[in-house]
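User: Show me an example of a complex going from sequences to structure tokens.

Assistant: Sure. Here are the input components:
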Amino acid sequence: MRKRNKRAQSGKKFILLALVAIIFAVLMASSISRREFSGPHKLILEILGTAQAGVVVVTNSLGHLWSDYVALWDVREENQLLREEIKKYQVVDSKYREALATNVRLEKLLELKENLAPPTLSAQIQGRDPSLWFKTLTINRGSSDGVGKGMPVVAVEGVVGHVLDSAAHYAKVLQANDPNSAIEVLIQESRVQGILKGTGAGYRLHYVLKNNDVKVGDQVVTSGLGGVFPKGLPVGTVSSVVSNRRGMFLDIEVTPAVNFERLEHVIIVLQSNQLIE
Amino acid sequence: MLTLVFIILGSFLLVLQTSLFTSLPGWIGNPDLLFLLVIFLAARMANFRGFFLVLILGLLMDIFSGITPGLFPVLYGALFLVIKFLSRQIIFDEPAHQPALAAISYLVCHSAIYLYLLAASRDIDLSWSWHDILLAMLIQAVLALPLFQFFNYLQKPFSADRDRLWLPHRHKPGNRFVR
């Protein structure tokens, strides 16, 4: 009984296998003859294709993740390099701006130098007076450059002061706003003359009679009478005019044309000072 | 050697305060380091050497400041004598006294310059600014302690008892009966 059942089962398997082989052979034959996928081909392709797509997506994602992670090492280094480069360029940019500003300043100085009676000499400020009561400067030009006592010192904006004393390569300049300084000036608009004295911070104009017309905003220039400064150099602007009850003169305050704190370069007019000599 | 060291130090401080410090913002003021050195010398240095040094430092200051040659040597010399006289009554080695000494000396010296300028020229336009003076006094007082420490440190190796500094010290107990 058992043997009969076994033979029947193996016969069914053989028939099933033969049927599958025939169907396969028919499908293959039809596909080859039409040179295209049959329905089952397409179905299987769809299923496996989707699976493949899934695998590809995952592998690509992992691949990108890996490559991105690895690339980060380079990016970090590159980032550092770029930051350093930016810093370098910022320094270069700053130097460029400084050079540009210096160039503009020197251009103006040159322009002024050409306008002044020759000979003139440009100088750089080396130091300033540390005291509260005095306003002096040290410049990098001295007697070896022809700089002598009493020579006027000017800047692009106007009068700076005069040379107080000089060594071979350096000189000391008394600023016009020093309380010990006095310059003969005139008011450009009204041609009123007076003596300008330093107050430490600014100037005060002395000996201008009350009947003179002096207004706030009037320009004050050198008169050329003192024999130290050439005529017409700007000195400052009138900032206040007070007419007191007592006295003959106006109380006039003048704001300096030069910002003494920011001064870097000056021009020395190499003229001998007869008064000092 | 010590004299030379202090002259070089004074020159360095003067250069510093006439170049670098002048570009500092106004609210920081203009610290006068050379003046602090003068006070230190007056308080700590022996009479003749100290007096000689403050005169030299005054000469240096004359070059960079003011318009009357000789003003600062006279001023520093007078300050030296006054501090020397006062040091017989007050111990200036105490750290608590040093900022006050620096500030008051600064006030006295600058008042003297102010009075001298007023006396020297009748029509000078000089105004006294308490704001500037007090700010400068405060800066001098603040800088006095660290600078005095530094000057002291600098002075030690050159002091007369320098040989003793290198010998091992025998620490004696506070109680004289304990051996």
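The lines above are the inputs; the final block is the predicted structure for all two components together. Confidence is low (pLDDT under 50) at residues 161-170 of chain B.
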